[in-house]
Specification:
The structure holds 2 protein chains of 2 kinds. By secondary structure, chain A is mostly helical. Chain A has helices spanning about 5-30, 30-35, 45-55, 60-70, 75-100, 110-115, 120-145, 150-165, 165-185, 205-230, 235-265, 265-270, 275-295, 300, 305-330, 340-365, 400-420, 420-425, 490-495, 500-505, 535-540, 545-550, 595-610, 625, and strands at about 440-445, 455, 470-475, 485, 530, 590, 645. In chain B, the strands form 4 sheets. Chain B has a 3-stranded mixed sheet with strand order 8-1-9. The chains are: A mainly alpha, B alpha+beta.
C-alpha cells in the first residue's frame, strides 16, 4: 500500500472518529441541539450538500452508462465501473444523510405505505429508492467477480445480471432523468420564497442538465484523483473527450438559465448591484461559464492540471447552485440567518469519508478500474525489526490498521472536546438577563365617568390640560425588548394600604438591602435563577464543620434535593401578609421573572375581580390590562422623553 | 358540511392576546422559551400557534391560513398534512417522517418544528379541528373579547367581510385577504393596513401553488417512457450499426453475428475478466 493511500485513509478514519461522536449527539439530543437549522431555515447543509448536490454528483453513473452501453462509445468503458460505484455510494450517502436530516428517520419507509402522487418529494423518494436498487444490481457483477464468489450459484447470478445489463441501464437512465429533474421540481411550489434569479418554471430542466454536466465533471475529477492516488496512467484522450462533452452540457445549462431569465424578463434583476445578483453571477461563472468556455479549448482539456482544476471548479459550482437554491436564495424572515454548525459539517464530511473508504475498499479488492492489474503491484508488507517493543511480535499487517484506529480515536477525542453543551445535554433555552424596572415620569388622567386611569409617559415639560396628576411610573421591561408594562407603583401602594403593604409583593430582600427589586432575585426572563450563595453560607456556618447544618444525612449525596429547605433556618422568608408563598421546599432557585410577575399580578387581579366584579370588571384581570404598550410605542428611547400614550383604554383601573 | 373559516378584522383587535392564551390552553402548549431558533419570544413557534404582530399601530393576528389548496398538503410525501372538507389543514404525527418540506413550501412561513426534541414533530394551528368535530368554535375565536376574530361558513364570512368593507370605506384596505390569494384561504382578514407582509413575498397571485407542481409532475410518466423509448431506440441503432460494421469480418470467420446484442458486449475481455 502506497504512503499516499495510507495518508488519505488515515485522514478519512480521523473524520470517521469525529463522525461517530457527533452521530451519537445528533440522535440523542435532536436536530436543534447540534445543527443551526431553524424554523427560518428548515433545510440546511445536509439537504443542500448530502442530498441535492450528492445526487447531482452521482449523475456520472447514468451518464457514463448511457454513453457506453446505449450510445456504444466503447472508449469510455473504463470509466463505467468507477462511475457506477461512485453513483451507488453517492446514493447510499444520500440515504444515510437523510437519516440524519429527517426528524423521524425511523419513518423513512412511510412513502411506500402512504403514497402521495401529488408530491414531488414522493417521486424523488421512489426514484432514489429504485435507482439505488438498480445501481446495486448494476455494480454487483463486479463484486461477484471476486474469487470468493467463484461458485456455481454465484456464477449463475452473475450471468443473469450481465444479461440484464441493458434493461438495468435503461431503467437507471429513466429513474435518473426523473429524480434529477424532480429535485428541481421540488422548488416549483416556492415561487414566493425562492429568489427570482433562482426560481424558474423550468428549474427541473436546469437541474437535469446541470446534473449531467457535473456528473461528467465528477467522473473526470475522480479519475484524476484515482490516477494520483493509485499511481495510474491518466487516460488523456478519453478524459479530454469527457471534458468536451461537459463543456457542451455546462454551456447549454448556462445558456438555458440566462435565456429563461431573459425570456421571463427577470434578467434585469441580475444586472442590479445587489448581493444576490453578485452571488448569481459568481455561481454561474464557477459552475458553468468558466469551465464551459475553457474546456472548449483543446489544449486546456488535454492538460492534466487544467482539466482537474476545471472539473473541481464545476463540481464546487454545481454544489453551490444546489446550496443557493435550498438555502442561500431561499427566503427567511428579517433577522434570521443560517450558517451550518461544525457538527453539520462534520456529519457531511463523515458521510463523504465513509463513502470514500468504501470506494477504496472496493477499488483495492475488486476490478473497479478494469485494465490496471493492481493486486500484483501491491508492495509486499515488509517486516521490520523494532528494537523497542512488541511490534515485531504482531503481524506487521496490523501496523497500518493501528494507525487508522489512532486516527479514529483522535477524531473522536477532538469531537468530544469541542462538542457544544447542547450536544451533551440537548437544546436549552438561552439566558435572558433581567434589568430592574426603571422609574419614568408619567401622568395619570382620570377617565371621567368610568372608573380607572389612563397612564402615559410624560414628555419633559409637556403641558396637557387633561392631566390629573403626575406620578412616577415603573417601566417593567425586564429584557428591554420594547414590550413594556407601565406599573404605577405609588398608586398601588396607596390603594393597598400604605407602607404596610410593601410585604405583599416584596417578599424577600437580599442581605443588607432594603426593598430589593424583583429583578434582584428573579434574574432571568424565562428561566429559573439560582440565588443561593454556597460560599457565604459555608463561611457563616463555620467552614466545613457547618456542612451538617444543611446536609444532615452524611449517607446521602449532598445535593439540593437532600439539603435542608431554606426556610428551616430563615423563618422570616414567609412574611405575614405576603402575597407570595415560596415553596416549602425552596432550594435557592427562583422562578423566572416572567413567571414571578405573572403569578404576583394575575393572582391579585383575578382575586379582586372575583371579589368585586362591579368595581373590577372582567378586563381588569386580562393580559391587555397591563400589556397595553406594544402598539406603536417604543420605550427603548427614554430621553428626551417623548409623549408616548397608550391607546384609548377601555379600562386601566388601579385599585379603584 | 360547508367549508368553515375564520374572519379576523384587525381594526377591532386590541392585541390582548386572549386568543394566544386560549390556543395555548386548548393545545397544551406551555410557556414559550427563548431558544436559539426563536427570533422573538412571541414569534410563532412549536409552543405558539398564533401570535399578534404589531404593524403601523395595528394588531395583526398571525396563524395558519388553512389554504383552500394548501402547498403543505401538496408537498407532503406521506400525507401527514391533510386538508379536511370542513376547511382545517390538519397534521397526522403518526405519518410524518420529519422532512420539513411542508415548512419550505408554505408561502406564509407558518409550520414550526420541535427543534429541541429528539423526537420532533411539525406543529401548527389546526383550526381546532377536534373542537370543530365536537361542534365547538376554535378556541381563539371563542376567547376573543372584541369579536375581532369570528368563525363561520366561509361563504357567509366572505359576505360579512365585503359588507364591512362597503360599510366603512376608508376604514379598511379594500381587499379581503385570503379570498383569492393562492387560490383562497380559510382564514380571511380585513385590515386598515396592507397585509402583504404576512406572505413570504409581496405580489402573491391567485394561482394555487399545487398547480405549479402538477403542471410538471403530470408530465412524469410520458417523460419517463419517452426517455426509456429514446434510449432503447438509440441502443437498437448503435447495435445495428456495430453489427453492420462487424459483418464483413464475421463472414470470414465463425458466424458470431447470430449473437444477441447484449452478448456482443459481454464478450469483451474487460467484462469477462473473472478471477480464476
Amino acid at each position: 500500500m502506497s504512503s499516499r493511500q495510507t495518508a488519505v485513509k488515515t485522514v478519512l478514519w480521523t473524520i470517521m472518529g469525529v463522525f461517530a461522536v457527533v452521530t451519537i449527539a445528533r440522535f440523542a439530543n435532536g436536530l436543534g441541539a447540534v445543527t443551526h437549522l431553524s424554523d427560518a431555515a428548515p433545510w440546511g447543509l445536509w439537504i443542500a450538500l448530502d442530498v441535492m448536490a450528492g445526487v447531482a454528483l452521482a449523475a456520472g453513473g447514468f451518464t457514463l452508462a448511457a454513453t457506453v452501453y446505449i450510445f456504444g462509445l466503447e472508449r469510455y468503458r473504463p470509466f463505467v465501473r468507477p462511475a457506477i460505484l461512485t453513483a451507488f455510494l453517492g446514493y447510499a450517502a444520500v440515504a444515510v444523510g437523510l437519516m440524519y436530516d429527517l426528524g423521524l428517520p425511523w419513518h423513512i419507509w412511510h412513502p411506500i405505505v402512504y403514497p402521495q402522487l401529488h408530491s414531488v418529494l414522493f417521486e424523488v423518494a421512489m426514484c432514489v429508492m429504485l435507482y439505488l436498487t438498480v445501481l446495486a444490481l448494476e455494480f454487483s457483477p463486479v463484486v461477484l467477480e471476486h474469487r470468493w464468489f467463484d461458485r456455481p450459484v454465484f456464477r449463475t447470478v452473475h450471468r443473469l445480471l450481465k444479461r440484464a445489463t441493458i434493461p438495468l441501464v435503461i431503467a437507471g437512465i429513466m429513474l435518473s432523468t426523473l429524480h434529477q429533474s424532480s429535485l428541481g421540481s421540488l422548488f416549483l411550489i416556492t415561487p414566493y420564497r425562492l429568489h427570482p434569479l433562482w426560481y424558474s418554471p423550468i428549474i427541473w430542466i436546469l437541474f437535469f442538465i446541470s446534473a449531467v454536466g457535473v456528473g461528467l465533471m465528477m467522473v473526470t475529477l475522480e479519475s484524476c484523483v484515482s490516477a494520483w492516488l493509485f499511481h495510474h496512467e491518466r487516460r488523456a484522450d478519453q478524459l479530454a473527450g469527457l471534458g468536451l462533452a461537459a463543456s457542451v452540457v455546462l454551456l447549454l445549462y448556462a445558456g438555458l438559465r440566462l435565456g429563461d431569465l431573459a425570456w421571463r424578463s427577470q434578467l434585469r434583476l441580475a444586472l442590479q448591484p445587489t448581493s444576490m445578483a453578485a452571488l448569481f453571477w459568481f455561481e454561474l461563472a464557477v459552475s458553468a461559464l468558466v469551465p464551459g468556455v475553457l474546456l472548449a479549448i483543446a489544449a486546456v482539456r488535454r492538460s492534466a492540471r487544467g482539466l482537474g482544476m476545471l472539473a473541481l471548479m464545476a463540481v464546487l459550482g454545481i454544489i453551490g447552485y444546489r446550496f443557493d437554491v435550498a438555502v442561500v436564495a431561499f427566503s427567511r424572515p428579517a433577522g434570521a440567518s443560517y450558517f451550518p454548525s461544525w457538527i453539520e459539517v462534520a456529519v457531511s464530511a463523515g458521510i463523504v469519508a465513509g463513502a470514500a473508504l468504501i470506494f477504496l475498499f472496493f477499488v483495492e479488492r475488486l476490478r473497479v478500474y478494469p485494465e490496471e492489474p493492481r493486486a500484483e503491484q501491491l508492495p509486499v508488507a515488509v517486516r521490520h525489526i523494532d528494537p523497542y517493543g512488541t511490534r515485531p511480535l504482531l503481524p506487521s499487517v496490523l501496523a497500518v490498521p493501528r494507525r487508522y484506529s489512532m486516527g479514529f480515536v483522535i477524531g473522536a477525542a477532538l469531537a468530544l472536546a469541542f462538542l457544544p453543551r447542547a450536544g451533551w445535554l440537548g437544546a436549552t433555552a438561552m439566558r435572558e438577563p433581567v434589568s430592574p424596572a426603571r422609574v419614568v415620569p408619567g401622568v395619570v388622567r382620570a377617565l371621567g365617568a368610568t372608573p380607572g386611569y389612563h397612564l402615559a409617559v410624560m414628555s419633559a415639560g409637556a403641558q396637557d390640560a387633561r392631566v390629573a396628576a403626575s406620578v412616577g411610573l415603573l417601566e417593567i421591561d425586564g429584557n428591554r425588548d420594547g414590550r413594556v408594562v407601565l406599573f404605577p407603583h405609588d398608586l398601588h401602594e396607596a390603594d393597598l394600604g400604605g407602607a404596610q403593604s410593601c410585604v405583599m409583593c416584596h417578599h424577600a430582600n437580599l442581605p443588607f438591602r432594603r426593598n430589593t427589586a424583583c429583578a434582584g432575585c428573579h434574574r432571568d426572563m424565562y428561566s429559573p435563577t439560582d440565588v443561593f450563595d454556597h460560599g457565604s453560607h459555608a463561611a457563616k456556618l463555620g467552614g466545613n464543620g457547618g456542612c451538617v447544618r444543611c446536609h444532615p444525612n452524611s449517607e446521602l449525596a449532598k445535593t439540593r434535593a437532600t439539603a435542608t429547605p431554606c426556610d428551616r433556618c430563615h423563618a422570616d422568608m414567609q412574611l405575614a401578609g405576603s402575597r407570595v408563598r415560596p415553596a416549602r421546599t425552596f432550594d435557592g432557585r427562583t422562578i423566572s421573572y416572567v413567571d414571578a410577575m405573572h403569578r404576583l399580578c394575575i393572582g391579585c387581579h383575578t382575586e379582586l375581580h372575583q371579589k368585586e366584579p362591579a368595581k373590577h370588571p372582567a378586563d381588569f384581570a386580562l393580559c391587555g390590562n397591563c400589556h397595553r404598550d406594544a402598539i406603536g410605542s417604543s420605550f427603548q428611547q427614554l430621553a428626551p422623553y417623548a409623549v408616548v400614550e397608550h391607546d384609548v383604554p377601555s379600562s386601566t383601573r388601579v385599585g379603584g | 358540511m360547508s367549508v368553515k373559516a375564520i374572519l379576523t378584522d384587525t381594526t377591532l383587535c386590541t392585541g390582548c392576546e386572549q386568543c394566544v392564551a386560549a390556543c395555548k390552553r386548548v393545545n397544551g402548549l406551555g410557556p414559550d422559551r427563548p431558544y436559539r431558533w426563536q427570533l422573538r419570544i412571541n414569534d410563532l413557534s412549536a409552543t405558539r400557534f398564533t401570535t399578534i404582530l404589531h404593524r403601523d399601530g395595528q394588531s395583526v393576528r398571525q396563524q395558519c391560513r388553512h389554504c383552500v389548496e394548501p402547498a403543505c398538503v401538496s408537498a407532503c410525501l406521506v400525507g401527514a398534512m391533510q386538508k379536511t372538507p370542513e376547511g382545517p389543514v390538519i397534521y397526522d404525527a403518526n405519518r410524518c417522517m420529519g422532512c420539513r418540506y411542508c415548512m419550505m413550501a408554505c408561502p406564509f412561513e407558518i409550520p414550526r418544528y420541535e427543534w429541541s426534541a429528539p423526537v420532533p414533530y411539525v406543529r401548527k394551528c389546526t383550526m381546532c379541528a377536534p373542537r370543530l368535530a365536537e361542534g365547538k368554535m376554535p378556541a381563539c375565536v371563542e376567547a376573543c373579547p372584541q369579536h375581532a376574530t369570528i368563525f363561520g361558513d366561509r361563504d357567509a364570512l366572505l359576505a360579512e367581510a365585503h359588507r364591512r368593507l362597503r360599510a366603512g370605506p376608508g376604514r379598511y384596505v379594500d381587499h379581503v385577504y385570503g379570498e383569492e390569494e393562492v387560490g383562497g384561504t380559510s382564514v380571511l382578514m380585513i385590515s386598515s393596513i396592507p397585509l402583504d407582509f404576512l406572505a413570504a413575498r409581496a405580489g402573491v397571485t391567485d394561482q394555487p401553488l399545487p398547480e405549479l407542481t402538477w403542471t410538471v409532475l403530470s408530465k412524469v410518466p410520458p417523460l419517463a417512457l419517452g426517455m426509456g423509448g429514446l434510449m432503447a431506440g438509440v441502443f437498437w441503432i448503435t447495435q445495428r450499426r456495430m453489427k453492420l460494421q462487424r459483418e464483413p469480418e464475421d463472414r470470414d470467420r465463425e458466424p458470431r453475428s447470430q449473437a444477441a446484442p447484449g452478448k456482443a458486449d459481454s464478450a469483451r475481455p474487460i467484462e469477462d475478466g473473472r478471477h480464476k
